[in-house]
Write a structure and sequence with these properties.
The protein has 211 residues and is mostly beta strands. 10% of the residues lie in helices and 53% in strands. This is Adventurous gliding motility protein CglE.
């Protein structure tokens, strides 16, 4: 009788322990790794960019008198969108200030002379032509070509009363930093004012942020 009681007590203690062991086994409660968050190495989409630098006009607009080589400064603000990895479309506003001597009378007929400025709203198209990978096999450096057109308005109006159409194009190089949203670049652009036949060029470092 005593042996039977001891066996029964052992069963009472062992069965719940086996049950708990089954419930906590790896098969019943598999351990799963927490899903890792992944980020794009380079952000693309809606972007905002600024650029600026020296600009030059070979033969400034003029109806009469000399058209001397003119140096100046330009700045541009652009908002656009990336269409995949290769193409981008943007809208811009560009301003420039150019130096000219007292002998430059533009289209004023002698009523005004000297320095002038311009304001140009317009649109651009950019294409990434060639990408270069870094040591992590991520293409961060691109050679690109950009072209655009805009409506050029000049000041002072007495010196250059007529607006013009500006077209421009040129190559550039851009590096997408490890900060994901930011890229930096350098662009060389040739320009042409259609009505006046004015040629120019600019060298413009740029900074870009993609949302």
């Amino acid at each position: 009788m005593k042996a039977l009681a001891t066996f029964a007590l052992s069963c009472v203690l062992v069965v719940p322990a086996l049950s708990r062991a089954q419930e906590s086994s790896p098969a019943a409660n598999p351990v799963k790794d927490r899903p890792a968050e992944s980020f794009d190495e380079i952000e693309r989409g809606l972007y905002f960019s600024v650029q600026g630098g020296p600009s030059f006009l070979v033969n400034p607009p003029a109806d009469e008198g000399p058209r001397p080589f003119s140096t100046g400064q330009m700045a541009m603000v652009e908002v656009g969108v990336d269409l995949g990895e290769r193409l981008s479309l943007g809208l811009f506003v560009m301003g420039a200030v150019n130096r000219a001597g007292s002998d430059y009378i533009g289209n004023s007929g002698g009523a005004a002379s000297g320095d002038f400025s311009s304001l140009v709203p317009g649109a651009t198209l950019r294409a990434n032509l060639k990408g270069f990978a870094d040591n992590q096999e991520v293409q961060r450096t691109f050679i690109y070509a950009r072209a655009g057109a805009g409506f050029a308005m000049f000041s002072p109006k007495l010196l250059l009363p007529d607006s013009d159409i500006l077209v421009f194009a040129g190559p550039g190089v851009e590096y997408y930093t490890r900060l994901r949203h930011f890229s930096v670049g350098l662009e060389v652009t040739g320009s042409y004012l259609v009505s006046s036949g004015t040629f120019g060029f600019a060298i413009a470092p740029n900074l870009r942020y993609a949302f």
